[in-house]
Amino acid sequence: MTPSILVINPNCTEAMTRGIDDACAPLRMPGGPAIETATLKEGPPGIETQQHVDGLIPPLTAFVRKNEAKHAAFVIACYSDPGIFSVREVTKKPVLGIAECGILTAMTLGSKFGVIAILQKSIPRHLRYMGAMGVMDRCAGELPVDLPVLELADEKKTFGRMVSVGRKLREQGADVVVMGCAGMARYRDALQQELGVPVVEPTQAAVSMAIGRVRVNWERI
Q: Where does 4-97+204-215 sit in CATH, by number?
């Protein structure tokens, strides 16, 4: 039986799940783990506050427990990595968060990374997490496009703001840019061309790591 990786969208917006699924498409390959996506129906339409993040712990842990036997690894596809430590407590299967994996991937691609956030109020939450990871000395900065999650589908407005923010991050010393929301996935290729530096789509980064974990059977002991 082919092992599978389950990529969980912790908000209830199906359009975002479809975008996440599209971002995973290049990583699907013959002989590789199957990559499936799912929407957490109990989640909010967009995850934009610490209260949203904290409130996701019970439904996420319950969802992973329910699906543990079906999958070899789990990816939490929200840039706040909601519930990641609690979910890791309820399964020995690999559990990867897109923020952690996106940042770690960025550090292999350049000296300093910058993050494009969705909202200004998201940044303190992300900075706390990066501080806990011990990577602040590699961070050139984080700046917002100031668009809520549900407005990221407006391609002209979103892409224009991402380019502007990406250029400011480059001016601050970033030689790699991380997209700080799973809802930005569709813009990666075009943004990388505009900025002239590597752009990390964090769901792709996390799923890439999950494939490696599954292929070498690295479950937590």
A: 3.40.50.12500
